[in-house]
Structure formats: C-alpha cells, structure tokens
Specification:
The chain is mainly α. Helices cover about 75% and strands about 5% of the residues. The protein contains 8 helices and 4 strands. The strands form 2 sheets. It has a two-stranded antiparallel ribbon. The chain has a two-stranded antiparallel ribbon with strand order 2-3. It is globular.
C-alpha cells in the first residue's frame, strides 16, 4: 500500500512541476511580448518624432525662403553697430547709414560745385546752379520774397529726400524714406518750424485767427475753427504717410515684377522684364516727384502763416 501512495505523490509532484514550468514559460512569453510591444511603440514614437522634426525643419526652411523672397524684406531694419543706453536702443542701422550717405553726397557735391565759382560754369557748377534756381523759383512762386529766409530749409528738404529716394533705386541698397519713422520725423520738424514761426510772426491771436477765416457766420465759427485746427494738426501725418506710402508701393511693385521674371523663365519672362524697365523709369519719376511735392507743400504751409484770412 505504501508503494502506490508514494507513486501517486511522485506523479502529483511531476504534474505540479510541469504546471509550474508552464506558468513560468507563459510569464516569460508574456514579458517578452510586452517588451516587444514596448519596443515597437518606442520605435513608432521615435519615427513619429523624427518625422515631426523633419516637417518642422522643412517648414522652417520654407518660411525662411519665403521671407528671403518676400517683397517686404527690402524694408527690414538691420543693425550695423549695436549701441544701447539703458533701455534706449541707439544702434546704427542700415537706414541711418543711407541717410548719412545721402547727407555726405549732398555736402560733397555742393562744396565741389561751388569751390571755384567759374564765370563759365563747369558741369558740377551748372547742376548746382540749376538746383539752386529751381528751389529759389519754387519759394518765390509759393511764398514770395518773405520766404527767401526759408531757402536753406526747403533746399535741404528737397535735396535730402530726393537723394534718399534715388539711392533706394540702386541695387542692394536701402530706401530710408520707406520708413514711417524717418518721414514722420522730417514732417514733425517742418511742422514745429512752421508753428513756431507763425506764433512768433503773428502772435497767439494771429495764429489762432488762421483757423477762422474772415466772413464766416458766427453760428458756424466753432465748427469751422475745429475743422481748420484739425486739418492743421494732421499735416505731419499726411506729409509723412504720403511719402512713405509712395516709396513702399513702388518698391513692392518692382519686387513683385522681378519675381515674375524669375518664375516665368527666359521665354515668358520677357514681358515682365520689359514692364519692369518701364516701371523703374516711372519709379524714378515718382522719387523726384515726391521730393518736389513735399517741398512745395511745406512752402504752401509757410505761405499760410504769412497771409491773413
């Protein structure tokens, strides 16, 4: 009886060992499957991250290429020499550089042209005298003899704006007058000079009388006064925006046409190329015209301070 009982125990032990081995193998298989699953998930995650990174790189490259070929890139202010005083940024930029170049060219040209003062003028002297007579006739026609004291102001305005506009037409250059801060600063300078002269010449009462024309009925006087005062105060804005908008619009149009020339190729790009030549000449005309308009409007505003209503 003891022998069969012993055999049954052995059989039970063998069965228990077999079941234990099966459980161990099953747990190993499950752990290996979970490990493989985690490895696949991590691989997929890494693949997705690398794909996202490549997409971001492509998007960044496309964005940079778009910015490089954008018509508005030419108006970007770039710092040449960084300089700060506290929180005030006084860096020397490309806009300041081209304004400095324009000023240097004007001074150099006038010094060279008027150095000898020949009886029979040379080319430089002829150009300088022509420019002088043009501005002088402009002042006399708009203001009169009293306006001759403002000749340095009008001459400087016209020549500076003209040269800034023309310099912006040269390749790889920068148009300083395409910045609203520059045109507004010039317009505000003129506005302060005109206002100061009007008060000094006519007094406070005469200055305020500029905004109330004679012969206006008393019941319309407040409305007319406010309208005239508002039109006087917005003159710096209209002067600056007119010059700024014309320069920006013309240069953007030229850039867009140049883009069509490159994209259409040699055969189909001939028409945009011919049109760009015409528009370049027209833009040069606009550059001269805007300098003239700015100068003659300043003359007109000065003339108002010398003539009572």
């Amino acid at each position: 009886m003891s022998k069969p009982i012993f055999e049954e125990k052995n059989l039970d032990n063998i069965k228990n060992n077999n079941s234990g081995n099966k459980l161990v193998e099953k747990s190993k298989n499950q752990s290996s499957e979970s490990h493989n699953h985690q490895a696949l998930e991590s691989h997929d995650h890494q693949a997705l991250e690398s794909h996202d990174d490549s997409d971001q790189i492509h998007q960044t490259q496309d964005h940079q290429a778009h910015e490089e070929h954008s018509p508005l890139t030419q108006f970007e202010i770039k710092k040449i020499i960084e300089f700060k005083i506290g929180n005030i940024d006084l860096s020397f930029t490309n806009s300041a550089l081209y304004m400095l170049i324009a000023t240097f060219l004007i001074i150099s040209f006038m010094i060279t042209a008027t150095r000898k003062k020949l009886l029979i003028p040379n080319r430089f002297q002829t150009c300088a005298e022509g420019l002088y007579n043009f501005v002088n006739d402009l002042i006399k026609g708009s203001i009169g003899e009293e306006g001759e004291k403002f000749f340095p102001l009008i001459f400087s305005l016209f020549s500076f704006i003209l040269l800034c506009n023309v310099l912006g037409m040269t390749p790889y250059s920068f148009t300083s007058t395409s910045q609203i801060a520059v045109t507004l600063a010039i317009a505000m300078l003129c506005f302060l000079i005109i206002t100061t002269y009007a008060i000094a010449r006519n007094g406070i009462g005469g200055f305020l009388h500029m905004f109330l024309p004679s012969g206006v009925p008393w019941w319309m006087a407040p409305v007319i006064f406010l309208i005239e005062l508002f039109s006087f105060l917005i003159r710096p804005i209209t002067l600056s925006v007119r010059l700024f908008a014309n320069m920006v619009a013309g240069h953007v149009l030229l850039k867009v046409i140049a883009g069509f020339i490159i994209s259409l190729g040699v055969v189909f790009g001939t028409l945009p190329f011919a049109f760009s030549i015409i528009m370049t000449g027209f833009e040069l005309f606009v550059a001269v015209l805007q300098a003239y308009i700015f100068a003659i409007l300043v003359c007109a505003y000065l003339s108002e301070t010398m003539k009572a209503h």
